[in-house]
Design goal:
Elements (H helix, E strand, L loop, with lengths): L3 H25 L6 H24 L3 H30 L7 H26 L1
Protein name: Permease
Keywords: Membrane, Transmembrane, Transmembrane helix
Organism: Thermobacillus xylanilyticus
Length: 125
């Protein structure tokens, strides 16, 4: 597994890339590719949470299996919620996005939710 310091460095690297991307898009007044912010934020969240979870996930005991199962369950419930909200926003004309943007946003939300739920559950159990 990667070390905790390296994963934190990766997380800050993703935040720097996201900040630079936001600055460039702000300066060019091009806000069409906003889904990239979701992807970069998701990668930063994964890096930061893995920095904390890496020692826990190396063990293969019942606690970790329980945390993984509960995290996957919570993620599946929230994924349905994300789909309904995205569908309602596009159905009533509040949000106009392409299929590629919708897929990238959904994948980013699902991966972030999974790792954040594992992080919260590892603190709880």
């Amino acid at each position: 597994m990667l070390s905790k310091k390296l994963l934190i460095l990766f997380g800050f690297g993703w935040l720097v890339i996201g900040g630079f991307l936001a600055l460039v898009q702000f300066m060019t007044s091009d806000a069409k590719n906003f889904e990239n912010f979701f992807v970069i934020a998701s990668l930063a969240i994964i890096s930061f949470t893995m920095a904390d979870l890496a020692p826990h996930l190396q063990r293969k005991d019942e606690r970790i299996q329980y945390i993984r199962q509960k995290g996957a369950f919570y993620t599946s419930i929230l994924t349905l919620f994300y789909c309904v909200v995205l569908w309602l926003l596009t159905q009533y004309g509040n949000l106009e996005i392409s299929v590629k943007q919708a897929v990238l946003i959904m994948l980013s939300l699902v991966s972030s939710t999974l790792f954040l739920s594992w992080f919260v559950l590892s603190r709880k159990y």
